[in-house]
From TrEMBL:
A Pfam family annotated for this UniProt entry: Glyco_hydro_31_3rd
GO terms under biological process: carbohydrate metabolic process
Domain Glycoside hydrolase family 31 TIM barrel per the UniProt entry, residue ranges: 259-582
Lineage: Bacteria, Pseudomonadati, Bacteroidota, Sphingobacteriia, Sphingobacteriales
Domain Glycoside hydrolase family 31 N-terminal as annotated: residue spans: 52-215
Protein's name in the database: Glycoside hydrolase family 31 protein
Family designation: Belongs to the glycosyl hydrolase 31 family.
InterPro entries hit by this protein: DUF5110, Gal_mutarotase_sf_dom, GH, Glyco_hydro_31_AS, Glyco_hydro_31_C, Glyco_hydro_31_N_dom, Glyco_hydro_31_TIM, Glyco_hydro_b
Length: 820
């Protein structure tokens, strides 16, 4: 019996060895370096099984490309930056190759190939996992990185789950996921860029590969993190900077940054699937104005179309589109229309006929057009990777511009079809190079929004900013569109997941984001709706939206108390438009998002990665927003280092502090960071209305220095690119006890003739303006109107605010300083 068992054991070992040998024939490692060629900033490396190019893109950005065959022609839909001329030192010996810039060092081990990135002092930032490095299994290529002790992984775009991705894995395959769960993956878009944080260093890795990809941050293993693609090259950019915000700046330098959005798009947007007919649209618009709820946009979903066919109107529901948009414009509203990529396969339908004539639809290998089913029925799909396809789309968009439409909402652009399984063998033009659906799927949405942005800008005359909203996209989407997080549910978990999704998108280069406030599917409770609208006021894009056959979700649909609460926060958003618009200018300049995970400014504070505090975020540089679901009565909060002012009362809270606070429906906890500078305006009902001519600048006393770049332009054209803007830097110097308004820049004149400076927390009795004594006024600052006393037996709600000092100053273009 023992002998028999021994034979069985030997058979098992032999079988296992056979399996390993078989696996080795499938798996191909990079292997040993066999040749090195140095060409200025590039090092070409030949190994036993791969061709590799290590290129210095800038002092702190290194690109690594590798494949099993000679590297193909370089092309990217995502990367628009060109390599900067950089001073690089390259040395090598029998064992290694070393590159050094003035920001970092790169070491390439030769036997076998492995790459390590270090600081100039030699601290390891990121390194290949010993023994694994990069390998292929069939056509799947994976790079394995050593997982550092205590390493956090953040970003990766539109991904659910915790802020810290460690212990989890994710797939990138753009998917239409109606009513997705709060932890579902993948969702609608792909941004294969993440940031690693450990031992007081931070870095970014962007894998520029459009095939289905997988990122593993220690899921089911304790050895490595990895990133992989189902085909194509291993092609990634490594970024290092001493501050996390600069890593984001490097990534957005590579993939592009937003242009200034149209000002109206930052106002409140009232949506529904769907508002029809036109009398219903007018009713909603009139009610918004009657109830004094500031708003700038109304969006029309698919029911405006004739049998859901793109670029058409249902004339029974909308008999006069131009009259509709004009009347709404006169009321201060802009119209945004949903536009899907599917073109109904119907002879006699002009859009289809013109698409056939132009031969711009995606095809099967036998040259027949691919047909998939969506809202209008069986459809063909424009090939947006074909320049002719983009030209076709631009021509069709002209009809909407002629009808007075201001915004284009790109939906179903994953692309989505019934069955959600588009065949692998759909063929795309790919800029003349040709590619299958497997390679193009994740960039289809990106090229659609590119077509929509470029086409609608041209349709509007070239100098007027279009507003483009998208559900799907790829790295670089921020160049063309705002993004919202798709078909969420009216649930507390989705509200909080939406906060994390937007924070993650901000970490991933997308600053203009929103979610369906109130929830798309189902119906919110009054408490949930009130809380969601409060949080929505502190989103970059504030869009209220709900599904067909659900209860109405306008602010007045939840009762009088909820109406007052939501109006209070929308009012606050409109007063904050100068601050918000200036924050978008900052995003345009350096990629720093408007909605900011605390990991950006408090990168190495372990508390910000805790599940208890991961939802907290900064709105711009001043506001600390503490979001909670509608069911939580006592909330746990964390205040990072520094001093924090209660936005409502001015009460001061010291940082590095954890505490519990009582929560109520009428108020979202929001604090202001010390030394903050916040420009505000008078309340308006629409951005088409001019505020009063006084800009109020709130300054909060602190012990740290700060500066805020205040920015204005016309809010609708590209003239700012020619210098037609108004900008001044406001500086707070804690040591010198001075607030300096720098000299105005740009050729435009400010819309404000006066500046009212409001001083929070200053006890100074002697205030000087430009060195001369200035008598500051005693004032009272309150940002909210008290909620009505709905319970006759209860107590009246008091006004919340604080006593402050204020100075009213004539706004001149010259520099002036306030000392205290």
């Amino acid at each position: 019996m023992k002998i028999a068992n021994r034979y069985v054991a030997l058979a098992v070992v032999f079988a296992a060895c056979t399996q390993v040998a078989s696996a080795q024939t499938l798996l191909k490692r990079v292997g040993k370096v066999t040749g090195v060629t140095v060409n200025n900033q590039e090092v070409d490396i030949k190994t036993e099984n791969a061709f590799i190019k290590v290129a210095v893109y800038s002092p702190n950005v290194i690109r690594v490309r590798m494949d099993k065959q000679q590297l193909a022609e370089d092309f990217s839909y995502a990367v628009i930056a060109k390599p900067q001329t950089t001073k690089v030192t390259v040395t090598q010996n029998d064992n290694e190759i070393n590159l050094a810039t003035d920001s970092l060092k790169v070491n390439v081990r030769k036997n076998p190939y492995a790459i390590t990135f270090t600081t100039l002092a030699g601290e390891v930032i990121n390194q290949d996992e010993t023994g694994l490095s990069t390998s292929w299994v069939s056509e799947n290529v994976t790079t394995y990185k050593h997982m550092q002790d205590g390493e956090h992984f953040i970003g990766l775009g539109e991904k659910t789950g915790p802020l810290d991705r460690r212990g989890n894995a994710y797939t990138n395959w753009n998917s239409d996921v109606f009513a997705y769960s709060a932890g579902q993956d993948p969702l609608y878009s792909t941004i294969p860029f993440y940031i690693g944080v450990h031992h007081n260093v931070q870095y970014g890795i962007f894998m520029d590969n459009t095939w289905q990809s997988d990122f593993n941050f220690g899921a089911s293993n304790n050895r490595f993190s990895s990133f992989a693609a189902k085909g194509g090259e291993m092609n990634y950019y490594f970024m290092y900077s001493s501050h996390l915000a600069d890593v984001i700046a490097s990534y957005t330098w590579l993939t592009g940054r937003i242009k200034m959005p149209p000002l109206w798009s930052l106002g409140y947007q009232q949506n529904r699937y769907s508002y029809y007919p036109d009398t219903e649209v007018y009713r909603v618009a009139n009610t918004l104005r009657e109830k004094k709820i500031p708003a700038d946009g109304i969006t029309l979903d698919i029911h405006y179309m004739d049998k859901y066919k793109v670029f058409t109107w249902d004339k029974s529901r909308f008999p006069d589109p131009q009259g509709l948009t004009k009347k709404l414009k006169d009321m201060g509203f802009k119209v945004t229309l949903i536009v899907d990529p599917g073109v109904k396969e119907e002879k006699g339908y002009g859009v289809y006929d013109r698409g056939i004539a132009a031969d711009i639809f995606a095809k099967y290998p036998d040259s027949t057009n691919y047909t998939g089913q969506v809202w209008p029925g069986w459809c063909n799909f424009p090939d947006f990777t074909n320049p002719k396809g983009r030209e076709f789309w631009a021509r069709e968009l002209k009809a909407y511009a002629a009808d007075g439409v201001s915004g284009i909402w790109n939906d179903m652009n994953e692309f989505s079809t019934w069955g959600q399984k588009a065949p692998d063998n759909i063929f795309f033009n790919y800029e003349g190079k040709g590619a299958s659906h497997l390679q193009i799927h994740n960039v289809y949405g990106l090229e659609m929004i590119r077509s929509s942005y470029e086409g609608y800008r041209a349709a509007l005359g070239g100098n007027k900013r279009p507003f483009v909203l998208t559900r799907s996209g790829f790295a670089g989407l921020q160049r063309f569109a705002a993004m919202w997080t798709g078909d969420n549910r009216a649930e507390d978990s989705h509200m909080m997941a939406g906060v994390r999704l937007m924070n993650s998108l901000g970490l991933s280069g997308v600053p203009y984001t929103g979610m369906d406030v109130g929830g798309f599917t189902g119906g919110a409770s009054p408490q949930l709706y009130a809380r969601w609208m409060q949080i929505g006021a502190f989103n970059p894009y504030m869009r209220n939206h709900t599904q067909i056959n659900t209860k109405s979700s306008e602010p007045w649909a939840y009762g009088e108390e909820v109406l007052e609460i939501t109006r209070n926060y929308i009012n606050l958003r409109y007063k904050l438009l100068p601050y918000l618009y200036s924050s978008f200018y900052e995003a345009k300049e350096n990629g720093k998002p408007v909605m900011r995970s605390l990991a950006i400014d408090y990168t190495h504070d372990e508390n910000v990665y805790s599940g208890a505090y991961e939802n907290q975020y900064m709105f711009g540089q001043a506001f600390l927003v503490l979001p909670f679901d509608s069911q939580t009565a006592i909330g746990r909060v964390y205040f990072p280092a520094g001093k924090w002012y209660d936005m409502y009362t001015g009460a001061v809270q010291q940082g590095n502090t954890k505490l519990s606070m009582e929560l109520g429906m009428s108020k979202l906890p929001v604090y202001v960071k010390e030394s903050s500078i916040i420009p505000m305006q008078s309340l308006i009902q629409t951005t088409a209305e001019k505020p009063t001519d006084t800009l109020t600048v709130h300054v909060y006393k602190g012990d740290i220095n700060n500066k805020f770049v205040y920015y204005e332009d016309d809010g609708e054209s590209y003239d700012y690119e020619k210098g037609d803007f108004y900008k001044r830097t406001i500086t707070y110097d804690a040591a010198k006890k001075a607030i300096t308004f720098g000299k105005a820049e740009g050729s435009a004149k400010s819309k404000f003739n006066n500046i009212k400076v409001v001083l929070h927390g200053f006890n100074a009795t002697a205030i000087k303006l430009n060195g001369r004594q200035f008598k500051a006024a005693d004032d009272f600052s309150a940002l909210m109107t008290p909620i009505s006393r709905f319970d006759p037996t209860g107590l009246s709600n008091p006004v919340e605010g604080e006593n402050v000092k204020s100075l009213l100053i004539k706004n001149s273009d010259g520099q002036f300083a306030i000392s205290y």
